[in-house]
Design goal:
This protein is α+β, with helices and mostly antiparallel strands and 307 residues long. The chain is built from eight helices and 16 strands. The structure holds 4'-deoxy-4'-aminopyridoxal-5'-phosphate. The site of 4'-deoxy-4'-aminopyridoxal-5'-phosphate has 14 residues, from α5.
């Protein structure tokens, strides 16, 4: 995957600069200790032809919240950075994009609080929708970070070593992606996405507390309300999931992607007959502000599952 080329422009500390000429301090506290916060955002070309950053406010509020929770200075104005993000898209001539803001810190080998932070915003093309490919998921030996040792609601760079270990392990074992439990063994989430399952016409999803509270997860809850689908948030076991009719990951990059199996146990209902599929369609329409379902395309599976 080429994230940038010689013409790519990023925003870096008040300036629009060429990505291939931009650099960072190798002595940064963020690089050495994973002490940085970031977001994963999508923009879409809507049916009207306009570029729309989906849930821009929510993502930048979460970025601020992540930084604040981790004592990282955050002197950035939400609406100003939303404008800057649209500028980055425009300067690169992309509409369907993945947007990656990152807040990182200056050179410091101590564990002290920094007085300063830097903001980088990059974007690269990301097409629409993964289509109807269903995932083979494996329960991971890795658990999500213990919320008593990490601030799990923060989207912190360092947390993603856990995601990388779990995802790589699942792929080495021949699966598409991992399902992680929390420190108590309850179903938690994927390495870069939240999880839902469906049983007898109802949806279930892990309650917040030991997971990243996803913006897509929240959108799914809202879609369920609109579609009058009952959802229960709670604590569930991997066994509960294996008895489900269907399951899916949801996340900004993954959007909504159904599962074929969990630990080689196949889900009972054909995906096309599930409520989950209805939600997937509704989500696809929502992001492009469309009333009906667009044609599915199958691409960028790995990129979408990354975060
Ligand atoms: N959990 C984890 C660990 C993630 O990295 C992500 C992706 N940001 C999500 C859940 C889904 O969050 P969102 O819907 O806000 O992208």
């Amino acid at each position: 995957m080429n994230y940038y080329n010689k013409n790519t422009i990023i925003y870096l500390n008040g300036e629009y600069v060429n990505a291939s000429e931009a650099g960072m301090d190798l002595y940064s506290q963020s690089l050495h200790y994973g002490y940085a916060v970031f977001e994963g955002i999508r923009s879409y070309k809507t049916v009207s032809g306009e570029t729309k950053i989906f849930k821009a406010k929510e993502h930048y509020e979460r970025l601020k919240n992540s930084a604040t929770l981790l004592n990282i200075p955050y002197p950035f104005d939400r609406d100003e950075i939303i404008d800057i993000t649209y500028q980055v898209l425009e300067k690169n001539g992309i509409q369907d994009a993945y947007i990656r803001p990152l807040v990182y810190l200056p050179a410091d080998m101590t564990f002290n609080v920094s007085q300063e932070s830097y903001l980088m915003i990059a974007a690269w093309p990301m097409g629409l929708f993964l289509g109807d490919k269903l995932l083979r998921v494996a329960t991971s030996q890795y658990q999500r970070p213990n919320p008593k040792g990490f601030i799990i609601e923060a989207k912190a760079s360092g947390h993603y070593v856990n995601s990388i270990l779990a995802s790589q392990d699942a792929k080495q074992r021949g699966y598409n992606e991992a399902l992680l439990t929390d420190m108590n063994g309850w179903v938690a989430e994927g390495p870069g996405a939240n999880v839902f399952f469906e049983k007898e016409g109802r949806l279930f999803t892990p309650a917040t507390g030991n997971i990243l509270p996803g913006i897509t997860r929240q959108t799914v809850l809202e879609l369920c309300e609109a579609l009058q689908i009952e959802v229960e948030e709670g604590q569930f076991t991997v066994e509960d999931m294996k008895e489900a009719d269907a399951a899916f990951f949801c996340g900004t990059a993954a959007e909504i992607i159904g599962w074929e199996s969990l630990d080689d146990i196949f889900f009972k209902k054909p995906w096309s007959e599930t409520l989950s599929k209805k939600i997937q369609n509704a989500y696809k329409d929502l992001v492009i502000e469309k009333e009906q379902e667009p044609a599915p395309e199958s691409r960028q599976l790995d990129a979408a599952l990354s975060s």
